[in-house]
Predict the 3D structure of the following.
Amino acid sequence: MLIYTIRRLLISVPTLLFIALAIFLLLELAPGDPVASMPLTIPPEVRQLMREALGLGEPLHIRFWKWLVQFLWVEPQVFIDWLTTTSGLAGVLPDTNFYVSCGSGDLGACDPRILSWQFRSPVMDIVLQRIPQTLWVVGTAYAVAIVIAIPVGVYSAYRQYSWFDNAGTFVTMVGFSVPPFFSGVLVIVIFSVQLNWFPSIYDTTHQVEDWDSFVYQLRQMVMPVMVLALQITSQISRFMRASMLDNLNLDYVRTARAKGLTENSVVLVHVLRNSMIPVVTVIALGIPQIFGGAIITEQVFKVNGIGQMLIGAIEANDIPTVQTLTFIFAVLIVLFNLIADVLYGILDPRIRYE
């Protein structure tokens, strides 16, 4: 298993480099100019100087190499320094530094960080500021969806064509069919406008300090979590049900029952463990979405998270932010794909990685 994991990590390096190159070239081909939104009174020569200050006057390969160095070398140094400082350990973001601090023996200018053209600050600092909001909403919705989806999928398969299975099929079809921008607006109209139970806008500046503030945090999380959990539960429960149905009629299940094992032991130990193997892929590959944010849902409920940050960067033609966030999502997908493959060997003893 260890050798397989190391081999997969080594293969991931050229894969991620190719993905980084593809992202970089696609954004270069995208239309738009970062200085196009500035006043027309700015002379053309000043605009050119501004473009060069943003690093757009250099050749493509130089800019791509600089971005790789910034992402893979400069930003990890900043993150390590943040973790080792008192402010980092306290969970407080350090003061914004545009350059990595140089030692006394270093010569020349320090390496600059990846700067957002829209916010005029390091991209990773903005990510660290916004990711708690995304984890609060999307992470909670994902956890709730897993807790609900697996039991629902198991019981629906065990009681196939029962009223519970039919009701679960109807709800999951609704969850699949209704897009978040419709269901989000619908729950706002019902629960916020008509019933006045929950706030319609998520207050990202709210801090939990006592019991009342904690209750308010839960109230403002209910609707976005409800919308996201419905969609995620629909997907995972259908996979769980289909996988359980594939295993319930196999020979090893009949053998286990013939040996006198209880029905709970047969279903919850033998069948469930084998049925979880394909479901693990769905769950593992969905975890990067937690860090990527729910783009549509965050827009509907005004959650100032990573998804909204990505949309704002695309609208503002903020190429460094879009490029960095997209590559972070790619790294997370490759990483959790590897984790899913490793979990296969844990769930199924027949799988051996040589």
